[in-house]
Known about the structure:
Blueprint: H1 2-29, H2 35-49, E1 54-58, H3 59-63, H4 72-100, H5 107-121, E2 126-130
Amino acid sequence: MTALGNLFWLVFGGLLMACGWWLAGLLCFASIVGIPWGRACFVIGKLCLLPFGRSVANRAVVTGKSDVGTGALGVVGNVLWFLFAGLWLAIGHLVSAVVCFVTIVGIPFGIQHLKLAEIALAPIGKTIVLNRR
């Protein structure tokens, strides 16, 4: 079911959304200051590409060690992200989720939009992991 969900997601906008996030990441990488946000854009793009069977996790928990993005500078970066982009991106995904929840067939896609809204709020210091069964 995960593969089928990802296939439908890709066909109905997931690939375009992932490319948009990756383009935003490349633009962020154009300046040295934007590199943390660029990395976050690539993480979100990865989740946009294949969201079914994956979830968001704190990078420090997954790797077992802290880094710049999981420490105090990551918090500052997330606050700046939230103020300038995160809130609006999360609202967009929440609206998309509500639209998907209108039909029974759209419910799984709405859940994926909620996952994207979560990471859009504060993406620095996060990574994508496969769900275990």
